[in-house]
Amino acid sequence: MPSTAARTRLRLAGALAAVLVASGVATGPAAQAHEGPAHGKPRTTLADLAQRHGRYFGSATDNPELTDTAYTKILGEEFDMITPGNGMKWYATEPQQGVFDWTAGDEIVDLARDHHQKVRAHTLVWHSQLPGWLTGKEWTADELRAVLKNHIQTEVRHYRGKVYAWDVVNEAFNEDGTYRETVFYKTLGPGYIADALRWAHQADPKAKLYLNDYNIEAVGPKSDAYYALAKELKARRVPLDGIGLQAHLALQYGYPTTLEDNLRRFSRLGLDTALTEVDVRMLLPATDEKLAQQADWYRDMTEACLEVRRCVGITVWDYTDKYSWIPAFFPGQGAALPWDEQLAPKPAYQAIREALS
Ligand code: G3I
């Protein structure tokens, strides 16, 4: 185990190397990472490095970006797991009741298949990005149950055999660990979660089924709620395979230091875990110091996942600041991803490589 000082030196060296790479100066391993077969040298990607640990390294993507060929080149090369950022959500897939549209999701699944990548599918049941026909009406429990079952089973059946995992229910809890009062909870009660998992399992028995949420990286009231629910669902033999920790972090709020313990307690319940939507935002402007701290957080998260056997992989919520959701949602914040807006790797990229190496 290197001393703290040695670790700091290593981190600074890594950060420096990434900056040199970003500015076009060739260095050791990082330079190698960006030299393709045309240069006659072996090229290791984040996916290659993660696979050596039996993990995947993924990225979210979204349909409008797929016309950017410089972007899709890196997306196709560096990652082995892809998540559609919007294309499989309810508003996109069932824009009118009973009328399904697979265009956006299929485009991403096809692209992933062309690059021999797997797909983490996202998401079946969520209170956000619902179609107007669903939110604009009062439903009886029987009606909504039928609508939910049909949506889940039609979508899961469509992608059966084509996706590795599903985020079945997304963001079901409040910060204090109480159930979020969504249309599903209010109309159907908490049993909608077990029902959703069972219906999804019937439609694709091989897909890994997840519950997924943000602010559950640390041990606390919200992750405790997931722990209690997961334990109960397992005891009742409800088909739940994993818990997705989104990991939308922000430098100004501090690092979730209990992440590894938290991952481990879910593993002990016999569940997989995954970091599903990682980004580390900061107050702009980005400075070298903030980018170095961000790199440390990416490294620490990657190491935490590698330390816990059933943490199966990491997905960044898109890989480049060019297409991050952050600036639109948190004005004045950004620079959250391992590649910058020019698609150049940042210190965080090098830090992830080092953690995986
Ligand atoms: O489709 C319309 C388009 O027609 C219109 O021209 C454009 C103008 O703004 O908006 C488009 O819709 C946007 C949609 O993404 C598709 O691009 C919405 O405004 C925008 O709000 C929406 O944001 C998405 C967000 O979920 C919604 O909550 C982000 O792209 C997506 O990355 C984000 O992802 C979520 C995960 O699903 C769950 N966890 C949190 C994560 C971040 O919010």
Automatic annotation (TrEMBL):
Q: Does the keyword ATP-binding apply?
A: no
InterPro entries the record matches: GH, GH10, GH10_dom, TAT_signal
Enzyme class, broadest EC rank: hydrolase
One GO MF term on file is: endo-1,4-beta-xylanase activity
What EC number(s) is this enzyme filed under?
3.2.1.8
Pfam families, per database record: Glyco_hydro_10
Signal peptide, first to last residue: 1-33
Which reaction equations make up its catalytic activity?
A: Endohydrolysis of (1->4)-beta-D-xylosidic linkages in xylans
User: Member of which family?
Assistant: Belongs to the glycosyl hydrolase 10 (cellulase F) family.
The name this protein goes by in its record: Beta-xylanase
Q: Which organism is it from?
A: Streptomyces asoensis
- Show the taxonomic lineage: Bacteria, Bacillati, Actinomycetota, Actinomycetes, Kitasatosporales
